[in-house]
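Bumping my old thread because nobody answered last time. Still need a sequence for this structure:
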C-alpha cells in the first residue's frame, strides 16, 4: 500500500503545482494542459512499479457498470458539445448583452441580473460552459465601462458553481458521483433542488455583503450589441439541448442509458450543423470550433485518476478513509466538509473519483447521504481556492489573458466569506431533506 500512496501523493502534489505555476506545457506549436499529463504519468508509474497492470485496468474500463469512467466522460463531453455549439452560434453572448442593457446604469441591478441569468443557464447547461462564455464578455464590458470587474466576475463564478448542483448534468462531478451510485436524473433533482436553492440564496446574500460598497456607484453608459449571430443555428441548438435534457430526465423510466442519449444528441447536432453548412454553401465554423473547444483532455485525466483510485482501493486505502469518516450522526457534514477540503487539495474531479470508492466501503445506511453531501462539496469547493475545480483553473486562465488579477488570497477571501456559509447551510438543508 505504501508505494501506491506515495506515487499518488506525489502525482497530486505535482498536479496542483502544475495548475498553479505552469498550467501548460509547450511542445513546438502544441500547447498541452499540465494537469492531465501529470495524472497520466502517475497512473503509468503505478503500472511500472507493479501496483497495477494493464489487463486489470482494461477489464475495469470494459465493465458495463455505472462507475465506468468512459461512460461518465462521454456523457459530460456530449453535453458540453451541445452547450458550446450554442455559444459558437452566439446564444450566450446575446443573453449576456441583453442582461447588461437591462441593467442600464445601475450596478446593483447588473449584479442581480447577471447572477440570475448565469444561475438559470448553469442549471440547464454546465458551470464550465457558462464560465467560458460569460467571463470574457464581463472582462470586455468592464474595460469599456471603466468599472472594477471583480464583483461581477465573482457573482458569475459563484452562481455558476452553486446552481450547477441543481441537475445531474451541471458538473462532471455530479455526473460521476450520481451515476456511479445508481442515482437517476429525477431522483437526483428531488433531493438536490432545495439545498441548491438555499445555497444560491445564501451565496447571493454573502456576495452582496462582500461587494456592497463597490455597487453603489453608477455605471457609465456603454454601447452593447444585442444581436443573435445565427438565429437558425441557435434555434436548432436550443431544441437539441432541450430535447436531450427531457430524455435524460425520463431515461430511467424508458430504460435508456444517459450517456447514450447525450452522445446521440451530440452526434445529432454535429450532423445537423454539417447539413446546414452544406445547404448554405459555407464552411462549418460552428462545428469546427465546437469540437476544438470540447474538453477532450478529461478523457486521459479521469481515466488516469480512476486508475490511481482503484489501485488505492485494491490496497485498502479507501477502506481506511471510510472507517475514519464512519457513519452515525452528521454524515452529511462529515462527507460534505471532507469532500470540500479534499477538492481544494487535489481538485474536485480526482476527489470525486476517490470519494466514490470511499462511499463503496462506507456502511450502506449512510451511502446515499454521503453521495449527495459529496456532490455539494464538489461544487462549492470551486470558489474556496483556485485549485478546487477545473472551472477555477479555466477562470484564472481567462482572467490572466485579460490582465485581471484574481489571485490566491482574493479567492480565499471569497471562499471564507461566501463558500463557507453556503456550504454549511446547504449541507444542513440536505440533512433536513434526507431525514424528512
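Sorry it took so long. Here it is:
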Amino acid at each position: 500500500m505504501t508505494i501506491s500512496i506515495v506515487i499518488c501523493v506525489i502525482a497530486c502534489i505535482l498536479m496542483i503545482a502544475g495548475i498553479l505555476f505552469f498550467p501548460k506545457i509547450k511542445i513546438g506549436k502544441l500547447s498541452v494542459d499540465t494537469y492531465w499529463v501529470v495524472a497520466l504519468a502517475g497512473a503509468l508509474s503505478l503500472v511500472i512499479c507493479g501496483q497495477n497492470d494493464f489487463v486489470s485496468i482494461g477489464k475495469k474500463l470494459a465493465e458495463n457498470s455505472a462507475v465506468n469512467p468512459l461512460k461518465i466522460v462521454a456523457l459530460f463531453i456530449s453535453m458540453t458539445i451541445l452547450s458550446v455549439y450554442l455559444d459558437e452560434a452566439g446564444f450566450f453572448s446575446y443573453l449576456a448583452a441583453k442582461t447588461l442593457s437591462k441593467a442600464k446604469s445601475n450596478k446593483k441591478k447588473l449584479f442581480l441580473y447577471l447572477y440570475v441569468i448565469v444561475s438559470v443557464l448553469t442549471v440547464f447547461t454546465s458551470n464550465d460552459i457558462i464560465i467560458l462564455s460569460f467571463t470574457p464578455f464581463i472582462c470586455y464590458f468592464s474595460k469599456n465601462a471603466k468599472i472594477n470587474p471583480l464583483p461581477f466576475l465573482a457573482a458569475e463564478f459563484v452562481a455558476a458553481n452553486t446552481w450547477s448542483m441543481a441537475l445531474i448534468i451541471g458538473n462532471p462531478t455530479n455526473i460521476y458521483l450520481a451515476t456511479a451510485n445508481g442515482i437517476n436524473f429525477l431522483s437526483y433533482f428531488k433531493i438536490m433542488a432545495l439545498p441548491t436553492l438555499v445555497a444560491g440564496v445564501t451565496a447571493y446574500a454573502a456576495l452582496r455583503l462582500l461587494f456592497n460598497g463597490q455597487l453603489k456607484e453608477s455605471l457609465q453608459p456603454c454601447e452593447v450589441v444585442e444581436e443573435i449571430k445565427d438565429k437558425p443555428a441557435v434555434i436548432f441548438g436550443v431544441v437539441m439541448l432541450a430535447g436531450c435534457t427531457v430524455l435524460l430526465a425520463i431515461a430511467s423510466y424508458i430504460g435508456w442509458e444517459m450517456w447514450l442519449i447525450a452522445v446521440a444528441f451530440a452526434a445529432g447536432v454535429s450532423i445537423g450543423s454539417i447539413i446546414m453548412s452544406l445547404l448554405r454553401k459555407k464552411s462549418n465554423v460552428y462545428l469546427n470550433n465546437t469540437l476544438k473547444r470540447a474538453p477532450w483532455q478529461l478523457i486521459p485525466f479521469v481515466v488516469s485518476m480512476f486508475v490511481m483510485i482503484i489501485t488505492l482501493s485494491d490496497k485498502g486505502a479507501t477502506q481506511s478513509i471510510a472507517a475514519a469518516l464512519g457513519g452515525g450522526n452528521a454524515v452529511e457534514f462529515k462527507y460534505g466538509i471532507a469532500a470540500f477540503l479534499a477538492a481544494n487539495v487535489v481538485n474536485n474531479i480526482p476527489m470525486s473519483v476517490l470519494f466514490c470508492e470511499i462511499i463503496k466501503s462506507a456502511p450502506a445506511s449512510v451511502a446515499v447521504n454521503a453521495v449527495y453531501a459529496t456532490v455539494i462539496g464538489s461544487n462549492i469547493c470551486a470558489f474556496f481556492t483556485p485549485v478546487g475545480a477545473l472551472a477555477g483553473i479555466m477562470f484564472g486562465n481567462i482572467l490572466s489573458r485579460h490582465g485581471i488579477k484574481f489571485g490566491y488570497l482574493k479567492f480565499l477571501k471569497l471562499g471564507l466569506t461566501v463558500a463557507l456559509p453556503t456550504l454549511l447551510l446547504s449541507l444542513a438543508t440536505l440533512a433536513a431533506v434526507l431525514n424528512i
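The first strand starts at residue 24 and ends at 27. Let me know if any region looks off to you.
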